[in-house]
Give the backbone structure.
Amino acid sequence: MLIGVGYRHPLARWIESGPPGVDCLEITAEHFFSAEQDKVLERLSRRFSLFVHGLGLSLGTPGPLDQDAVQQFARVVRLADPMWISEHVAFTRTAQVDLGHLNPVPPTREMVDIIADHARAVADICQKPILLENITSHVQLQGELQETDFLNMLCEKGGCGLLLDVTNLYINSRNYGFDPTRWLQQLAPDHIVQLHIVGYAKRGERYFDSHAEPIQPELIQLAQEVAAYAPVRAIVLERDEDIPQAAEMEIEISKLWEVDGRH
Amino acid sequence: MAAIDVIAVLSQLLSDGTLRDAFAADPSGTVAQYDLTENDRRAIRQLSPQDLEVQARILLGKRWDAVRRCLPSTCGRLATEGRELFQQSARKRPRLLADHDLADTIAFCDFLAVMRPLDLDPAERNRVKFLHSNSWITIRPVRSRRGHGSCRRLQLLIRLSRRRWHEFQFGV
């Protein structure tokens, strides 16, 4: 299993130093839309296995994809030459409003078709396999399908894999009161290609994906369950806020070795 | 009334605090305004107003992060009150597609000009308004804080191209 981190500017120096145990990097496509970043991207692609992760393609928005956004995304993919690309089972905007962040879609057969078509289109344009990530949300839309059936159908119809965000699964399981292990066992294991993980925050009775905390032990345990259940190829630490110094990042990376069974 | 889907209605609820307040007071009445299928109507009606508000605050938090990057000095003065003030100013103002971070920032500056004028850095306000405009050159007098006092300066903003610009400040 490849072990990696999400590339963030505050981590640049640490990443360029070649930290031990970091096999791969996940690039957020939108951070590299400016051509001023091209040289950085080319340098990283020479040294690390890369994945390109999108935030703004809004695959869950009915209607045509935003072609400007897709072309910008595809340009980054061409430069990075990643092993695969990924986006979210979510929408971020409509024809009138840009919400600027990920929001849930209804788990319906119609939405399976919408996202599957969009995912195939992006994969075709980029000529790379595409993974779709589960999100966390404080709003849950009901639909005709259970979430796991929805994700299984999506992967089948879209010809895509799953980027299982372990933290999002854990947060949703706490906020909505379900067993994450049982949820996991309803997913077809062969679809799960990559994992995301980062510590969660808790305020009152609610759990939040702050992307700002060290990884809690229960998340490592859940990730180990996933790794035992599915042929996971990579796990990426997705720390976005309160990014710590190198020593603490290396402790975080060493936690991921436990998922992979390394010592 | 044009048909609308559940995604469009959800996006309106998440971006418009006035609509969320109406939904909290009368979910069925609010949903009845939309030409939805019965399944979509049911899906929206069962949403919790409290959950919508929590999700909406997360979205506002992302907008706040972008505004903070545009107004570092102003937001530094606002300290821990900045986020709540922004939430107050933006809760009922959806971020339209044609909108972008600068428009959010300018709207927040206009809000602070009334609510917290002493915390608003005038140079930052001039800068974002210039960037949002089509102007090639702008000169503005500003008072900038120095220690316990302030000093008068001239702020000169020159646009070189669509994305490149220079700023100079001169003491007077």
Q: What stands out?
A: DSSP finds nine helices and twelve strands in chain A.
